[in-house]
Design goal:
Chain lengths: ~300, ~450
């Protein structure tokens, strides 16, 4: 087959072009440190990359949700624990009042009144501008006391507040006033405020009625159990939040690793590749200059 | 007996012949780098011998013609492959631009905007009455719409660019057709007088190949040497000295269709750059735009459905969250909502305001709802499929182009091998003709001596 000058030239041009193309790609990979720089570099891989990114972003959002939920549950729990303490104190006061004289009982009644107000304050606890025990009516003061009758009314509702833990997974994280304080809709429920008010009234009466006090102590116990029930629900919710947080943390690391494997270029590998392409390019150029120089005229006279 | 003047005549003819041969060699050498040049050779023949008593005596050499070393079947193959090369080149360039528009590798594309949108709703779940969270929901909705609009409009822009390329290419085709017609005329004139119009034929071949890159053609040579070139659907582009022009006419979508200038009949195009541009403009991009429209409408419908059944902080219900359409260039967040974020319906019930976040939860869970592809894919899956589809299309165009380029290169090399000028070869030829010339000169000087001798007898 005849070989002409043009052919050799064309060959040289094409080889140099191919070499420089590869060199450019290697340089791109080194500067972005990504193996996939456009969808066409790896269409299937690209789909995977987008999917993993989305999953990681979702997980990060779930983690944010859990953090926010945990704060709420912690605040609720600590309030409930304080409530529990106060109720036990009330019980002790009631027990201690048995066998006390009128003066002693008057003192006890005052203590109970203080506890009454403290417990109402707990009921009106806030977190970031919203009342945590009000159900859905987060902007309404949950417990108001009528000045005349001294009765406390619950102004909230029994809405449930949920948080999103994961795909299709929600968790209830609130405790509303009815199930904690007023016992409405709770089996064996007890209205704590009524109990304490009755206790105060009983202690203020001149005649000591042991049976009535006993009765009220029983009712207080029911109230304490009520609070304990909610406390254990909250603590179970917290555990669930913790576990889910760990789960997401573990999964996120896995996804990040898979994403990196698909998307990222190994810096060391890419550097070596770049070196190889540079060498190849130089060799193509050297071969070119050699081939183009020689012709018959060098040898003719 | 041979006459002395006969021998002189032979010498003189030989000189002329070798000189012509040198001329052609020089022409070859000069054109070693000319695009499309086919090397030429002299054809030398012996002149008619004379019959004498002793037998036939030769009368020397004459150059009977200059011929071009050329394979016409190869030329047809080359122009065919160039058609496909042009098509893939145009399609590849168009699709690569589309790929850039989707911009997903940087992480700031529609994928991210959708994630941010669902995340904003989840943040609202965590604090349904929070003003900052509401602003964030409105902002991320607008950002989502912005990204949709950006991609859609960028795609439309590429379509417009492809459209201008179509117009430009049609003008280019008309120009080239005219050139070929002109050369046809010249070639016919020269060849009817018996000569070979070698250089003009080479020139015409170059024009034909360039024309082939633009649009699919078939051609054949007429008896008188002119090319008749037909376009793919049989219409005549060039016949003898006349060329028929193509024109563009605006169609219903506002883009240019290619028609014959005379008669206005549509031209069916199946290869060449025109085909590439038309493919991208009329098939590929509209496909992607439709996908985007489908996705944006599905998101809008699903979001609005849930939003309109929920309650905002102001106790109102029934406001749609998204309004407008991509195609109508007005897709965005309902201006009532962006004007007053209290209208964002996080609550599922009127009584539940402000602490109820059940509607926001429903909204956030849309991210995982199977609403696309006949209820088998999520919004994200669908979009990821579109992006991956673009990648596949570009990859395919790239590999078709590379394959085609290799094919054309191979054929070009083969053509070079047949018709190309090798300087080494021409050097040898030059030596050959030089020496022959010297020898012929010797013949003449030899005859001169004979004549002298003869003169001196008398």
């Amino acid at each position: 087959m005849r070989v002409t000058n043009k052919q050799m030239l064309n060959l040289v041009t094409r080889d140099v072009a191919v070499s420089s193309n590869r060199l450019l790609k290697a340089q791109e990979r080194l500067s972005t440190l990504k193996a996939v720089n456009r969808p066409s570099d790896d269409p299937i891989g690209m789909r995977g990359i987008l999917d993993y990114r989305k999953r990681i972003a979702s997980i990060e959002q779930y983690e944010r949700n859990i953090t926010s939920a945990k704060t709420r549950v912690e605040v609720t729990e600590s309030n409930l624990e304080e409530l529990h303490e106060l109720l036990n104190t009330a019980k002790d006061v009631a027990k201690g009042s048995l066998g006390e004289d009128e003066f002693g009982r008057q003192m006890a009644a005052e203590q109970i009144e203080n506890l009454y107000d403290q417990i109402r304050d707990i009921g009106n606890a806030r977190l970031g501008g919203s009342y945590i025990f009000a159900g859905h009516a987060t902007d309404t003061l949950p417990f108001t006391k009528d000045e005349v009758t001294e009765a406390v009314t619950y102004n909230g509702d029994n809405g449930e507040v949920n948080t999103i833990l994961g795909e299709g997974m929600t968790l209830r994280i609130n405790a509303h006033g009815d199930e904690v304080f007023t016992g409405v809709g709770v089996t064996d429920g007890e209205n704590i405020f009524d109990v304490l008010k009755d206790l105060k009234d009983e202690l203020e009466s001149p005649v000591s009625d042991t049976e009535a006090i006993q009765d009220l102590i029983d009712r207080l116990n029911k109230g304490i159990t009520q609070v304990e029930r909610v406390l254990s629900q909250q603590s179970a919710a917290y555990k669930r939040l913790d576990q889910t947080e760990d789960y997401w943390g573990y999964l996120k690391v896995k996804f990040e690793s898979v994403l990196s494997n698909t998307e990222d270029a190994d810096a060391a590998q890419v550097t070596v590749e770049l070196q190889a392409q540079e060498t190849a390019y130089e060799m193509a150029l050297a071969a070119a200059s050699d081939v183009l120089k020689r012709n018959l005229m060098d040898f003719l006279g | 007996m041979a006459s002395i003047y006969g021998i002189l005549h032979i010498g003189r003819q030989a000189l002329a012949a070798q000189q012509e041969a040198l001329n052609v060699t020089a022409h070859n050498i000069a054109n070693v780098n000319t695009e499309g040049y086919s090397r030429q050779r002299v054809v030398m023949e012996t002149t008619a011998p004379i019959t004498t008593v002793t037998g036939q005596i030769g009368t020397g050499v004459v150059v009977s013609g200059v011929e071009r070393v050329y394979d016409k079947y190869l030329a047809k193959q080359i122009s065919n492959e160039n058609e496909t090369l042009g098509r893939w080149e145009a399609e590849k360039n168009g699709l690569e631009r589309v790929e850039v528009v989707f911009n997903e590798t940087s992480g700031y594309g529609l994928n991210q905007a959708m994630s941010d949108f669902w995340d904003a709703w989840q943040d609202l779940v965590n604090n349904p009455s929070g003003a900052a969270e509401r602003e964030m929901v409105a902002w991320s909705g607008e950002n989502l719409a912005l990204n949709f609009n950006r991609i859609y409009n960028d795609l439309s822009q590429i379509q417009n660019d492809m459209n201008s390329y179509v117009s430009q290419t049609v003008d280019d085709i008309n120009f080239k057709a005219e050139q070929i017609a002109g050369i046809n005329e010249k070639i016919v004139k020269i060849e009817t007088s018996g000569a070979n119009a070698n250089d003009l034929r080479d020139e015409r071949d170059v024009w034909v190949n360039e024309l082939a890159k633009m649009i699919d053609i078939t051609y054949h040579e007429e008896g008188n040497g002119s090319f008749t070139i037909e376009s793919g659907d049989g219409g005549i582009l060039v016949e003898g000295a006349t060329s028929n022009a193509l024109a563009t006419v605006t169609n219903g979508s506002g883009f240019e269709d290619v028609v014959w200038a005379v008669g206005g009949a549509a031209v069916a195009i199946s290869d060449g750059k025109l085909k590439g541009y038309l493919e991208v403009r009329d098939t590929a991009i509209p496909g992607y735009k439709l996908d985007l429209e489908e996705l944006s409408e599905a998101i809008k419908d699903a979001v609005n459905d849930i939003h309109q059944n929920g309650y905002g902080l102001d106790g109102d219900t029934g406001d749609p969250f998204f309004a407008g359409t991509l195609a109508g260039n007005d897709f965005g967040v309902n201006s009532d909502i962006s004007g007053d974020v209290n209208k964002i319906a996080a609550s599922g019930t009127l009584e539940g305001v402000p602490g109820d976040n059940s509607n926001a939860i429903k909204m956030a869970e849309l991210q995982n709802a199977l609403k696309m592809n006949s209820d088998t894919a999520t919004f994200d899956d669908f979009y990821n499929g579109v992006v991956s589809g673009v990648g596949v299309d570009v990859q395919q165009a790239n590999s078709s182009y590379n394959h085609q380029e290799a094919m054309v290169n191979y054929l070009d090399d083969y053509r070079e091998a047949v018709s190309g000028v090798s300087l080494d070869e021409e050097m040898v030829n030059m030596l050959q003709f030089e020496t022959a010339y010297q020898a012929a000169a010797r013949v003449i000087s030899s005859v001169d001596k004979i004549l002298e001798t003869l003169m001196s007898i008398v």
